[in-house]
Design brief:
It comes from Desulfoferula mesophila. The protein is mainly β. It contains two helices and 25 strands.
Length: 363
């Protein structure tokens, strides 16, 4: 049987280390008021920032009057810390703050403002780097086009990359794919010119995830995607992985179990009537590894620790390829909560492992 692979160690430090050729903007939410005045704050626009951001607006003076147009305000992005502008006139017309966020006020009955009235506005990050790194298949990078697109990464230092995964992509059969790498930074780091850098791999198209195994050591990486005839008119993908790949020296036994499990929630009502909801069917595997060396056992236990990091958000799904020769079978999922192992002759171990797919809920 072909070797299996586990991809659980993504070398990309976070969304701040990613760049994309283009991305659709994020949403600007409704202002949450902490105000005594009667004026209503409204927000509009399309957020162009890469990450989720809270914009804080506060009335800083009512000396000239407490009405809209007379009172002034200050504002900041919460990540900035300090106020980014002060003494700005309130207005009934939309005012642009930053990253596409705009606000205005509608006068109310009585006094519009009191000094210290405050509003908080949540603007979600554009559909780019943050979506590719949040481990959620329901969120996706959505480019604004389908030709000449790319995803770039700065790993912080040269790392030995053994696997690339672009999850839940919509690439067509006519797409052209190239993975380039470099150790010479551009500005930003991953933006070396097309044609520069070495070709680390030319991935073959697989679905639902693009999976490519390689062995190359570099710091700066860029996956170039060209699909001008894409029927959706844009490119999208849910997750981007560029990191290590653990392959036990001995793969699982041929008599493995494979199936599908319904994702559902059951509710029992009056009279014992059962109701509930169901989602997508999740693929699962039950595997038995025979006569593993200690190094392989240590590797699988490291995988279990990495996927159960502890604390809130500590569940970190991995990519599992049951057969290296058929990367199209790769699934995104979680291992079971325990690894059962039994001592075998010669200082080796028999080990049992289960895995279940983490499904999309937006389809």
């Amino acid at each position: 049987m072909s070797t299996c692979r586990f991809m659980y160690d993504n070398f990309i430090p976070g969304p701040q280390a990613l760049g994309v050729s283009s991305a659709r903007p994020g949403m600007v939410g409704l202002p949450a008021a902490e105000a005594l005045g009667s004026a209503t704050c409204l927000a509009a626009g399309e957020h162009t920032g890469d990450l989720d951001q809270v914009v804080v607006v506060e009335i800083d003076s009512v000396t000239a009057g407490s009405e809209v147009g007379l009172a002034t305000f200050r504002w900041k992005r919460q990540s900035a810390g300090a106020w980014e502008a002060t003494g700005v006139d309130t207005s009934v017309s939309l005012l642009t703050l930053a990253d596409g966020v705009r606000i205005k006020w509608v006068p109310g009955p009585g006094k519009d403002f009191y000094r210290g009235d405050r509003w908080s506005i949540l603007a979600t990050g554009r559909q780019g780097p943050q979506a590719l790194m949040d481990r959620d298949r329901d969120n996706a990078w959505r480019a604004t086009a389908c030709a000449g697109q790319w995803i770039g990464a700065d790993l912080g230092q040269a790392r030995r990359v053994r696997a690339l995964v672009l999850a839940d992509h919509n690439l067509s059969d006519a797409a052209s794919l190239t993975l380039r790498a470099s150790d010479i930074p551009g500005d930003p780091a991953w933006s070396f010119a097309p044609g520069d850098g070495v070709v680390a791999a030319t991935p073959a198209l697989t679905r639902p995830h693009l999976v490519c195994f390689l062995d190359a050591t570099h710091r700066y990486w860029r996956l170039e995607l060209d699909d001008p005839a894409n029927p959706e008119g844009l490119l999208r993908a849910s997750l981007f992985y560029l990191g290590d790949s653990f392959a036990p020296q001995r793969t699982f036994r041929a008599a493995y179990t494979q199936g599908r499990a319904a994702t559902r929630q059951l509710l029992k009502g009056a009279g014992g009537k059962v109701a509930g909801s169901s989602g997508a069917l999740a693929a699962y595997y039950q595997l038995e590894f025979a006569r593993l060396a200690q190094a392989d056992v240590d590797g699988l236990e490291a995988m279990l620790c990495a996927t159960h990091a502890g604390g809130e958000g500590g569940l970190r799904p991995l990519f599992f390829t049951p057969f290296e020769s058929d990367p199209g079978q790769t699934l995104y999922g979680l291992p079971g909560a325990e690894l059962s192992r039994q001592r075998a002759p010669g200082g080796r171990w028999n080990l049992g492992l289960s895995l279940q797919e983490v499904v999309r809920t937006d389809v």
